[in-house]
Amino acid sequence: MLDTKNKQTEKHEHTHAQNRFAVIPTAEKLNADKQFSGKNVTVAFLDSGFYPHPDFAERVVEFHDVSGSEKSFNSITEPQNHHWHGTQTVVSCAGNGSLSDGIYKGLASEANLVLVKVSETGKISDESIEKGLQWISANREKYNIRVLNMSLGGDMDAKLDESKINQLAEELIKQGVVITVAAGNSSDSHSIPPANSPSVITVGGFSDENLFESENFDLYHSNFGKTADGFIKPEIIAPAMFVAAPILPETKDYKVAEILSMLHTAPDYAFRRLLEEYWRTADLPEDVLYCDISTAMKLVENEIKKRKIIAAHYQHVDGTSFAAPIAASVVAQMLEANPNLTPKIVKNILISTASRLSGFPAIRQGFGIINAKSAVEEAMREKHFSEDDFLMPPIIDGNRILFFHHDDKAKTIVLAGDFNDWDEKKSHFVKCKNDFWQAEIPCLPHGKYRYKFVIDGEKWTEDLNNGIKEEDGFGAFNSILIIE
């Protein structure tokens, strides 16, 4: 591990407890299995920059700056604006909650971390993203990198054969790295590289409104839709609002939050004295000194709420930039539970265990909300580690078309589509020796065909291996087969 020391690790007297505006910790949001924490799994991050935060600094095994401006992680002592985003994404995935009494720790709180800074003077270019991906590829074996999170994107949408970023992402996945990517935060736009890359796990967002009851949930304004290559993104959605993240240490915001939290918890007899001493540091107006205690306390509380402060050193944030690392933390749990999983199997499990948010279009949420507990349970049960050839879209093999499906619990699977009048009795899958399912039909004339799989005569589902699909008019998708 890198030798990192930080002022925030020193003992201090203020409380680390949540305040009344606290958000639900991620593990509780997702009903995750807390026995897994990403132990012995290395998660890499490509982001604008990082600060040695106490929640993760001791687990950073390598830091690399593609611009060369920050020579080492140990040399970062003064916080800069470009450190905010990366630090918050890492903590939302793999923070151990050391500055929140363990409350706001990520699901991968024991994962090893590799941090790659891809900004230069605060800006991120396609070229710097490419350099970051190339560095990950060259060093993945050295640091045993199994997961990569990218809460960033290139400059424009492009097909796979036109995007170097997407090509590098696809190659990394072939090498064994699972990649989670933020879908983006503009609901009127589709995803950009690498979020539009076919094999990455593109993560959109939802809001739980800081409540447990799913009937209160809403979709976040994530990017969605058809990519330049015709794939529908995102595949899944994860929390993108009311997510706990650190306030960058040694900044004015950090000190303000600390003082406001102290004032908020002060007893009445000490409040006036503390207010007179710290009102300037807390960035409060001078008028607060002339208010009665009740009004002054209300002003402090309003300031805490406005700044989204949820504890002395944390605030709540929003964006798919945080949904993606939360998904990455679930992947780290899965790989801890079963280190033999391949990227294709991980993706297959994540989308097959997700559940759609009722009442909202499927095209905006893919397969739906990530199910952390079910994904880990399926990962533990998975025994197929070298069958990636069966996790693919339909292929033409001579005078026949082959379809594939992975479902260990299914008893029967039937192929239904335009080509057989949607008859769930005509084209049966056969369970192969490796426990994967395969179906075949004769070659078809040129054209576009819609199809689905029927599981055990009841559940109609799209082809999990085929990202080319369209809405079916019933809140789900038809998979699309194009014969050229």
List its traits.
single chain, about 475 residues, alpha+beta, 8-stranded mixed sheet, 6-stranded antiparallel sheet, 25 strands, about 25% helix, about 20% strand, elongated
Characterise this structure.
The model is unreliable at 7-12 (pLDDT under 50). The protein is elongated, with a radius of gyration of 24 Å. The strands form six sheets. Strands 1, 2, 3, 6, 7, 8, 9 and 12 form an eight-stranded mixed sheet that branches. Strands 18, 19, 22, 23, 24 and 25 form a six-stranded antiparallel sheet that branches. A four-stranded antiparallel sheet has the order 16-17-21-20, with no helix packed on it. The protein starts with 25 loop residues before the first helix and ends with a strand. The longest helix is centred in the first third of the chain and has 18 residues, at 126-143. Helices cover 25% and strands 22% of the residues. It has ten helices and 25 strands. Helix 2 runs parallel beside helix 8 (320-337), helix 3 (126-143) packs parallel to helix 4 (164-174) and helix 9 packs across helix 10 (372-381). It has helices spanning 26-29, 83-94, 126-143, 164-174, 252-265, 268-278, 293-306, 320-337, 343-353, 372-381; strands at residues 42-47, 60-65, 112-117, 119-120, 123-124, 145-150, 178-182, 201-207, 218-219, 225-226, 232-233, 236-239, 243-246, 309-311, 314-317, 395-397, 400-405, 413-417, 427-428, 430-431, 437-442, 447-455, 459-461, 469-471, 477-483. The relative contact order is 0.12. It has 484 residues and is α+β, with helices and mostly antiparallel strands.
